[in-house]
Amino acid sequence: MNKPVEPNSFRTGPDEQGMFGIFGGRFVAETLMPLILELEEHWNAAKNDPAFKAELQQLGAHYTGRPSPLYFAERLTEHLGGAKVYFKREELNHTGSHKVNNCLGQILLAKRMGKTRIIAETGAGQHGVASATVAARFGLPCVVYMGATDVERQAPNVFRMRLLGAEVKPVTSGHGTLKDAMNEALRDWVTNVEDTYYLIGTAAGPHPYPELVRDFQSVIGQETKEQILAAEGRLPDMLVAAVGGGSNAIGLFHPFLDDKGVAMVGVEAGGKGLEGDEHCASLTAGSPGVLHGNRTYLLQDSDGQIKEGHSISAGLDYPGIGPEHSWLKEAGRVEYVPIMDHEALEAFQLLTRLEGIIPALEPSHALAEVIKRAPKMGKDQIIVMNLSGRGDKDIFAVAKHLKMDV
Amino acid sequence: MTTTRIDRLFTKLKAENRPALVTYFMGGDPDYETSLSIMKALPVAGSDIIELGMPFSDPMADGPAIQAAGLRALKGGQTLDKTLRMAKSFRQDNDHTPIVMMGYYNPIYIYGVDRFLTEARASGIDGLIIVDLPPEMDEELCVPALRAGINFIRLATPTTDDKRLPKVLENTSGFVYYVSMTGITGSALPDTSKVAGAVARIKGHTKLPVCVGFGVKTASQARAIGAAADGVVVGTAIVNAVANVLGPDGKTTADPAEAVATLVRGLADGVREARITAAAE
């Protein structure tokens, strides 16, 4: 594949067809096409509407608790002996992760479109919980599709969703994980086209989802920019974030894409290693293909059949990635690297002991990369990492891996 | 474009004043050889057009029956290459029944569009139905397929309103596949009078034949739909006929080709009576 010519700006995508270079697009069944066009129309109106922005900002401030702090991790920095490490504390948001930023934006959009029923897919349950939360807040019924395997391994989040009034539908088709949940959500949407809004949890899917989810998450990077300028008087040298579908990473990265001095690293789930099939590193070990409405890097076999991924973190357990990340990889603007399960587990424990913060397993992957890089950087350099979620949901999984009883 | 087997078939059926019976089956379900025997049995039992399903790991527009059939085929080692080979093998003794390959884009994209079209043409493929390629993505496969002389058959759905229909029909050829409801394959058939209205609406925009599918399972439904449509598509019922003769271990308990043929003979009688019944009423 030819490398695209470096654009003047990395922040202008997607184009009118929803493409980021060759990635993105609208690969959906005809039944859904009119719905996606309708969504695009409403999104284009909403993003330029000051009242929409104001309502979202108001909810962000008083419901989510924005801005989230930018925290200087003093003890970790000292321990690593290199670059100063800052955390963007998205784990302090209501519902415990960055997911709520997107859910609030999209439910306002759903309301604007007159939709009366919300559907969502979830892997670890973080997006499911955030969707159920905003659906409760706005009084809309919510159905969450979740792979049967995930329902079993994420019992506390399933209960949370049910408490919030959502109906959790276990998906047994395929292999019962996130990609099957997404297939099932699409099947629901294609059936209930009149009243239903599909609240996608990451910056992927058919256009305009990758764009609108990114824009709702970009509040992370915008705040970071102001906060780091206030704290340090300059921009950071490096941004680090975990990528599953890639919404927390694109949210942090996007406002900085044209700041040439800021390096960016997206951290994928290397699982048990890239040699076999037990990983979710679609950008490092996959190839471009078409799934779930967009062209992007996927884990697939030589016949174009999609593989199941593996990660210790259910939130990274998806064989694809948002299309903008695929484009940023090929453009060379962002570097993507894998982190293994065991490295993430070690990072999880280190942060817990050093800073008194229990991170989710997803940002623990980003942290493991920070642990590798910070010592090699100068003490005058700055890394900002997106601490995208808290680890309460993961204590059972971690206990199992550490062979401890809860 | 020169006339294709599909065009010739509809001209012939128009003269006979009857709708086409379009039968879908999953290539490679439960294995290559059995599946090829099913394919060969279809026209003998009265099928006019064969839709050859290409299995995909993530069939987002299909119901449980076709999902399961696809997984069985993949487990049995089916690949796009083998599906093309199956068509080629079928063509050795049948040169008139149109074959339309139906499935999702990714396996074709990975195979390579140009290579696929060359092979498809050499294998006697007449048309393509690719569920996840709406007109907005025509440059991907539709335009190259038309250039290669292969029909690109588009799905029109209840959500395709009059404003959008011209766009959907623009590069469509062969026939238009009207999906009788919003939903996945194999759901319940809607009110047949609604279907007739929808067919009339589409015919107001195109001279192409309109075939109706999604939800047709029995001969009487085929007869009712066939009164208004130029063709009746049956898929899930055929896939189920295969599943019904598979034991829990995946071994066949009866001949799947014969099970499918029995069903198709009934459906063929249904479509042949469609216009006669309609005229008598």
TrEMBL record, chain B:
Keywords: Amino-acid biosynthesis, Aromatic amino acid biosynthesis, Lyase, Tryptophan biosynthesis
One GO cellular component term noted in the UniProt record for this chain: cytosol
Pathway recorded for this protein: Amino-acid biosynthesis; L-tryptophan biosynthesis; L-tryptophan from chorismate: step 5/5
Recorded catalytic activity of this chain's protein: (1S,2R)-1-C-(indol-3-yl)glycerol 3-phosphate + L-serine = D-glyceraldehyde 3-phosphate + L-tryptophan + H2O
Listed Gene3D superfamilies: Aldolase class I
MF GO annotations: tryptophan synthase activity
Transmembrane segments: none
Annotated catalytic residues: 51 (proton acceptor), 62 (proton acceptor)
EC number, UniProt record: 4.2.1.20
Top EC group: lyase
Homology family: Belongs to the TrpA family.
PANTHER family, per the entry: TRYPTOPHAN SYNTHASE ALPHA CHAIN, CHLOROPLASTIC, TRYPTOPHAN SYNTHASE, ALPHA CHAIN
Function: The alpha subunit is responsible for the aldol cleavage of indoleglycerol phosphate to indole and glyceraldehyde 3-phosphate.
Quaternary assembly: Tetramer of two alpha and two beta chains.
Protein name: Tryptophan synthase alpha chain
